[in-house]
Design a protein that fits this description.
Elements: E1 10-14, E2 19-21, E3 31-42, E4 45-53, E5 56-59, E6 68-69, E7 80-82, E8 91-101, E9 106-118, E10 126-129, E11 142-147, E12 155-162, E13 165-168, E14 175-178, E15 189-194
Parallel strand pairs: 1-9
Antiparallel strand pairs: 2-7, 3-4, 3-8, 4-5, 6-7, 8-9, 10-11, 11-14, 12-13, 12-15
């Protein structure tokens, strides 16, 4: 069990979101990490994405540049973080670590994780009231916040009910803010969340 890499068999990532592919080991006395690398296999061809060795960190695939990172100062953690996930990122990812022992022999271990990218529709949003709640004195300031989950980016639209329908409000963010409430602000408010 010495220096065995642990990870998980499969990770689901959300399109446009970010994910971490775990790869960890327990550092052991007498063994120094020489190199660690991450490679990906897609359409039966394997390419190295990331390599860390004496000369530093190297990212080999341009479509992963600025999107991948491996923790710097946490011994035993070789996990790969991928940001802004794209549909073609799906594939088999292999973490390989090489150690040098005190008698100069090399030990290599690897672990493979399947990454599956999924598109997730925006969920039905929930509305959270500000600190004062939903019954607020005139002149006070308050807000309503709309929250939904799903593949980013999520956009929000606010509506207010009027007799016979709903009228769109100027606010387009997740938060609807009033600096000084008037009695005429009373009413029923709706939030709509959408993503691509």
């Amino acid at each position: 069990a010495l220096l065995d890499l642990s990870g998980v068999h499969q990770v689901k990532g959300t399109w446009m979101g970010s994910t971490t592919l775990p790869c960890t080991y327990v550092p052991s006395e007498g063994f120094t990490e020489q190199a660690l690398s991450w490679s990906v296999e897609r359409d039966s061809s394997t390419s190295t994405i990331f390599r860390r060795d004496d000369s530093g960190d190297h990212i080999f695939l341009s479509n992963f540049r600025d999107r991948v990172s491996v923790p710097k100062h946490s011994p035993g953690n070789a996990s790969l973080r991928i940001e802004k996930l794209e549909m073609p990122d799906s594939g088999h990812y292999t973490c390989q670590v090489i150690w040098r022992s005190t008698n100069n022999s090399l030990i290599t271990r690897e672990v493979t994780t399947i990454l599956k990218i999924v598109k997730v529709a925006a969920t039905k949003p929930i509305i959270r009231a500000g600190e004062l709640g939903l019954t607020v004195p005139a002149g006070a300031s308050t807000s309503l916040t709309c929250e939904a989950s799903g593949s980013p980016p999520i956009s929000y639209r606010w509506f207010r009910s009027i007799p016979g329908g709903k009228v769109p409000l100027q606010s387009s963010g997740a938060e609807l803010v009033w600096d000084s409430l008037r009695p005429s602000d009373s009413g029923m408010y709706f939030c709509e969340a959408a993503n691509r």
